[in-house]
Design brief:
- The protein is of the alpha/beta class and about 210 residues long.
- The protein has a single domain, classed as Lambda Exonuclease, Chain A (Alpha-Beta Complex).
- Strands 1, 2, 3, 4, 5, 6 and 7 form a 7-stranded mixed sheet that branches.
- The longest helix is centred in the last third of the chain and has 20 residues.
- It starts with 6 loop residues before the first strand and ends with a helix.
- About 0% of the residues have low confidence.
Length: about 210
Amino acid sequence: MEERGPIALSALQHFLFCPRQCALIHVERVWAENVATAEGRLLHDKADLPGTSSRKDGRVSRALPLHAPDLGIAGVADVVEWYREDGRWRPFPVEYKRGRPKEHRADEVQLCAQALCLEAMTGLPVPEGALFYGTTRRRVVVPFDGELRRLVHATFEAVRAMIEDGVTPAAVYLPKRCDACSLRALCLPERLSARPSVSRWLQRKIEEEMA
């Protein structure tokens, strides 16, 4: 049997934002960029210069590869800050996002998944991290409590099942999310989620006959 590869950390965020978007990217392997994704990429480029540097209160690792073989997830952390505590370096992940804090928990799940990788790699507890948003220019500290950790595991299982099934979910048009999605032209949410109305078709035909 073919060995299953790790799930990308970003896939968890994509799935909670939109399962169809996740499938288009991680199953069908399609991608498109818009202003939002370009801005996000530029924001990450500033953080994702690989290497570790020292500062007065600790160390900072950028573009740090992460993996948790037992969980089946892998990816790259934008920034991991390290603080000396009880004679050991304790990690604190920081993920950079464009825009502002979201109504859903997709960003928090991605960050918490990074923490699970760091715990697996270091053997140390990672109780919290932070999301930095480009619009507000502020950090939002995220505690990795039991509820969030359970959501990470549940999301991972859902993504794994979707990828193994190889089935892209049907389109559901949600204007607030779809209109800002870079894959909108490939997804066609308005067209594919709209069911044709027989009554409207009949009414149009009657009007054409009477014209």
